[in-house]
Amino acid sequence: MAKIEMDPQRWKQDVLKKYPSKIAKKREKSILVNDGHDTTQVIQANIRTIPGIITQRGCTYAGCKGVVLGPTRDIVNLVHGPIGCSFYAWLTRRNQTLPPTPDSPNYMMYSFSTDMQDSNIVFGGELKLKKACREAFAIFKPKAIGIFSTCPVGLIGDDVHAVAREMKEELGINIFGFSCEGYKGVSQSAGHHIANNALVKHVIGLNDTPAEGKFLINMLGEYNIGGDAFELERILKKCGITLNASFSGNSTMEQFERAHMAELNVVMCHRSINYVAEMMEKKYGIPWFKVNFIGAEASAKSLRKIAKYFGDADLIAKVEDVIAQEMAIVAKAIDEIKPRTTGKTAMMFVGGSRAHHYQELFTELGMSSLSAGYEFGHRDDYEGRRVLPTIQVDADSRNIEELTIEKDEAKFRERLSEEKKAELEKDLQFNEYEGMMKDMEKGALVIDDLSHYEMEKLIEIYHPDVFCAGIKEKYCVQKMGIPLKQLHSYDYGGPYAGFEGAVNFYKDIDMIVNTSVWKLIKAPWEKEAVIEAEYAA
Ligand code: CFM
To answer: Which atom of ligand 1 is nearest the CA belonging to 62?
Structure first.
């Protein structure tokens, strides 16, 4: 398949020309030709999708229930809404979990819903919600119930928080509600924020008994897709680092409750959990920095950062030892696979962090990322947190509660003195995320909230060797003769995090970009003439 080399600026202009002028003006600001080091480049992000455009995004409820709380096994996640919302959040994602014993509570295979009917919409659903809480309690005796609001709940005004308070009192377990109606924000991202707020308000800090072991950390923004968390747990254990709490891959309520006892928060997915990191620092004095365990080199770097933070000579030596062992296996795989993948190209449009993190793995394979973008990232996820003070808060963002966090005098503990923090700052970069654009090649197309039309044009013009996105895009892209690798569910592969995960990824991408099956498919525009017309104004 001949590659058509088109200047990305021209690609952008050609795409924009097809939109009505008002829409072109809006989309123009969300499509950039990356100049990685130009700090004045601004991308428009986290704004409403233009009606009529086919977006990749999901809803606020998805971000709250599905993403942040979904992976925790011993909370009954009760959806207040019509059954469809529950069905689509029921084991349709690949969050795995491993209860310590066969008898340990694990509700992840269940779908709890109030199954709202027309009559509940007319007369209100609070009674039905109370009944559902009592029923769930009677059957499962869970430690906690989370109540998730879907769109109709907000529209009719059911007060899930009042029901939660009443049921908490009556049943004597922790019950908390989320006003995460699907329409509450412009994307999943609003749901993350709502979930983060409720965790801080209702759960974190309730149990002062930390996990047993040395070097206690919390892993934030890791959701155990395809078993990623298991691989990270393996590596941390091997290094002698204790995972006190995970938000929220393979997690439990107890972990959330004791999270404030950790010495350090490390943040994987900045987009979904940076609020918890910030709030825990203010409230309990736990410093945080960004890590990335996608990519072998990135994993090694992240482990070194953690070891450096604790500054313990034995830990530093142990981490180096583990890295050396793991990297030997990684290097063997790279030596074999890289010659076959070098020079190939990839594009990735996923969520709010993976479109950045996975570029690491492609770089390790000698591949270049021609274009990437988030579905719902904010400007800081593209440009770095330095732009935070300049982001204008619009009506949609204002819709999401900003908690005022005060120091918890009883539980606050200074982990690092100011001097020590300043000394470590250069290597660890506390409270920082530099965003995707800095790591991308000059000339790469950075596109926020990619539309289906733009996706087709990327493929038609640039023919990447692999396109990474989700199930909604998968078959459209493959019908165009380009393989699609899902990076939300991993197409039932994985894990891809850490060292063993990196090797899994190399092998899968090698198969994908080197199979001949795609060369047998011709896209329609390649085999038949296409007539195009334009309006003459
Ligand atoms: Fe964070 Fe995620 Fe992602 Fe995300 Fe997601 Fe996800 Fe994702 Mo799908 S929390 S932003 S809302 S890393 S569900 S586990 S894969 S879009 S890139």
So the answer is: 11
- Decide: 133 and 78 in contact? Cβ < 8 Å: yes
Q: Which of 244, 180, 118 is nearest to 401 (CA)?
A: 180
Report how far apart the first and last C-alpha atoms of the chain are (Å, whole number): 36
Atom of ligand 1 nearest to the CA of 488: 15
CA of 353 to the centre of ligand 1 (A): 7
- For residue 221 the two structure tokens come to 């923004």
Alpha carbon nearest to ligand 1 atom 10, residue: 352
492: left (phi over 0), alpha (psi -120 to 50) or beta: left
Sheet bearing 75-80, strands edge to edge: 112-113, 75-80, 144-149, 174-178
Query: Would you state the pLDDT for residue 522?
Result: 76
pLDDT at position 175, please?
98
488 ligand 1 Cβ < 6 A: yes
Ligand 1: residue whose CA is nearest its atom 14: 223
| Whole-number Cα distances in Å, 248 to 80, 238, 255, 276 | 22, 21, 9, 12
Q: Which residues of the chain have pLDDT under 70?
A: 1-4, 91-93, 537
pLDDT of residue 4: 57
Ligand 1 centroid to Cα of residue 465, in Å, is 23
Q: Is 205 touching ligand 1 by the criterion CB < 6 Å?
A: no
**Residue 114 identity:** T
pLDDT at 524: 74
